[in-house]
Design brief:
Elements (H helix, E strand, L loop, with lengths): L7 H9 L6 H13 L4 H14 L3 H13 L14 E5 L8 H10 L4 E5 L9 H5 L11 H10 L2 E5 L6 H11 L7 H15 L3 E8 L8 H17 L3 E8 L7 E3 H12 L5 H17 L7 H6 L2 H12 L13 E6 L4 E6 L1 H13 L13 E4 L6 E2 L4 E7 L5 H7 L4 E4 L9 E6 L1
Helix pairs in contact: 1-3, 2-4, 4-9, 5-12, 5-14, 9-10, 15-16
Length: 429
C-alpha cells in the first residue's frame, strides 16, 4: 500500500494556526476524505478551522478544483438549446427554484438544476419537491439529458459521480456549525455548478438575519468569490444580492412552499416571490443570450405552469395530487393593534426547522407538512388577537421549542419605515 503524503492532523493544525494550505495539502485532504482516509471528525475539525481562519482566493480556487476532481464533469453541448442554472445561498421561504426552472424552460433555455437538501435553518429544494406524491430526486445522467431535451427543465440531486466530496462535506457542515464559512460555501456551490457544465449561472446571494451572510459586505465577498470562480472556469456567472431579513413569501416549510410556488405559476402568489422569480429568470435568459424574451409573459400566459406539470410528471410526481398537510396546527396571534414593523427571518426559519421541516442530523427524515405559514408581513396592519402565523407539525410536542424560537421575533408599532428593496446589488466579473 502506497503511504499517504500527509497526515490529517498536520493539515488540521496548519489551518488551525492560520497558515495557508498548500495546493498539495488541499488536493490530498479533499481526495483522502472522499476515499475515507480522513475521518468525519477530522474533516469537521478542519472545516471549523477554515470557518475561523478563512482561506484566500488561491486556497478557495484549489479547494474547488479538488472537489471537482473527485468526480466527473457533465457536458450539455449536445442539447439543441442553451443552458442556464441558478443557485441560492439559502434563505427562509426561498422556494424560487420551483417556479423559476419551468419558467426559464418555457422561454427556450434548458435548466439543469442540481439541488440540495435543507441546510440548518434554510429549506432544501429536494425536500420540498419530495412532498409531491411520487416525485423522485435521483436521476441518472442519461435520464437528466432526456428530460432536458423533452421538457427543458430538471430539478434533481447531483449524481454520485458529480463532486462526491461535496456531498459528504455538505452533510457534515449541516451538523457541525460550519455552514457560514465563505470559503466552504463558495467551493461547495461552484464545484457542483462547474462540474455540472451549465453555460450560464446566476447566483442569488442572500443578505440579512435569515441568511448565512448577515451583512452586505460579507455577501458581496461571497458573491465576488463565486463569480470569479465561475469566470475562471469559463461559465458566464453573475450574482444578485437579495434581502433576507424577512421571510420570502408567506410560507416556510416543504409542502407549504410547493403550494405557494404553484400559486405563483398560476398567476398569483406573493409579490416578492413573483418579483424575484422574474428578475432571476431575466438574468438567466440574458446569460444564455435570449434577451428578446420577457419571462413575465410566459408566467402570465400559462406556459410556465405547463412546463411545471411536465417537469414534475417526468420525475414520477403527480402534479395534481393533494399536497401533504400537517396533523396539528397552532396559531400565533398578534399581541397589539398596529402596523407589523418587523418579522425576523431567522426566527421563522428556526421555528420551521424545529417543527420538523429541517433535520438535526445527516439523513434524518423531514416532515412534508411541517413549517410556518405567515398571515402578515411587515407593513401590514394587524389587530390584537388576530392570526399572525400558523405553525404546522405532525408532532405537537415540537410546538414549545418552535414558539421559543419566535419569542421577540416580531414588532408592532404605529408607523412602518419602507423596507429595503428586494434586490440590493448586482455583481459580475
Amino acid at each position: 500500500m502506497t503511504p499517504e503524503p500527509f497526515a490529517p492532523t498536520d493539515v488540521i493544525v496548519a489551518k488551525r494556526d492560520g497558515q495557508r494550505l498548500t495546493d498539495e495539502q488541499i488536493s490530498w485532504v479533499v481526495d483522502a476524505y472522499t476515499r475515507g482516509v480522513v475521518a468525519d471528525e477530522q474533516m469537521s475539525a478542519l472545516a471549523m478551522a477554515i470557518l475561523l481562519n478563512g482561506m484566500d482566493r488561491r486556497e478557495i480556487a484549489r479547494w474547488t478544483s479538488a472537489m471537482i476532481a473527485t468526480g466527473e464533469r457533465m457536458d450539455f453541448s449536445s442539447l439543441p438549446m442553451p443552458t442556464a442554472d441558478k443557485h441560492s445561498t439559502g434563505g427562509v421561504g426561498d422556494k424560487i427554484t420551483l417556479p423559476l426552472a419551468p419558467l426559464v424552460a418555457a422561454c427556450g433555455v434548458a435548466v439543469p438544476q442540481l439541488s440540495g437538501r435543507g441546510l440548518g435553518h434554510t429549506g432544501g429544494t429536494l425536500d420540498k419537491l419530495e412532498s409531491i406524491p411520487g416525485w423522485q430526486a435521483a436521476l441518472s445522467n442519461e435520464q437528466m439529458m432526456t428530460q432536458l431535451r423533452d421538457v427543458g427543465a430538471v430539478i434533481c440531486a447531483a449524481g454520485s459521480g458529480l463532486a462526491p466530496a461535496d456531498k459528504k462535506l455538505y452533510a457534515l457542515r449541516d451538523v457541525t456549525g460550519t455552514v457560514e464559512s465563505i470559503a466552504l460555501i463558495a467551493s461547495s456551490i461552484m464545484s457542483k455548478k462547474i462540474a455540472e457544465g451549465t453555460g450560464a449561472l446566476v447566483l442569488d446571494v442572500k443578505v440579512g438575519s435569515g441568511a448565512f451572510m448577515k451583512t452586505e459586505e460579507s455577501a458581496r465577498e461571497l458573491a465576488e468569490t463565486m463569480v470569479a470562480l465561475g469566470a475562471d472556469a469559463g461559465v458566464n456567472t453573475v450574482a444578485l444580492l437579495t434581502e433576507m431579513s424577512t421571510p420570502l413569501g408567506l410560507t416556510a416549510g416543504n409542502a407549504l412552499e410547493v403550494r405557494e410556488s404553484v400559486e405563483v405559476l398560476a398567476g398569483g402568489g406573493p409579490a416578492d416571490v413573483v418579483e424575484l422569480t422574474i428578475a432571476l429568470a431575466r438574468e438567466m435568459l440574458a446569460g444564455a443570450g435570449r434577451t428578446e424574451i420577457d419571462p413575465a409573459d410566459a408566467l402570465a400566459d400559462g406556459r410556465a405552469m405547463d412546463a411545471w406539470v411536465k417537469m414534475i410528471a417526468a420525475q414520477g410526481g403527480d402534479p395534481h395530487a393533494p399536497l401533504p398537510t400537517a396533523r396539528e396546527t397552532f396559531t400565533v396571534t398578534a399581541s397589539d393593534t398596529g402596523v407589523l414593523t418587523s418579522l425576523d427571518a431567522m426566527a421563522v426559519g428556526v421555528a420551521a426547522w424545529r417543527l420538523g421541516a429541517g433535520r438535526s442530523g445527516p439523513g434524518e427524515a423531514v416532515q412534508a407538512g411541517a413549517g410556518v405559514e405567515l398571515h402578515a408581513k411587515p407593513g401590514d396592519h394587524v389587530t390584537a388577537g388576530s392570526a399572525l402565523m400558523t405553525l404546522h407539525t405532525d408532532t405537537p410536542e415540537r410546538f414549545e421549542l418552535a414558539l421559543a424560537a419566535l419569542t421577540d421575533s416580531y414588532s408592532i408599532g404605529n408607523e412602518f419605515t419602507a423596507a429595503k428593496p428586494l434586490i440590493l446589488a448586482r455583481v459580475e466579473s
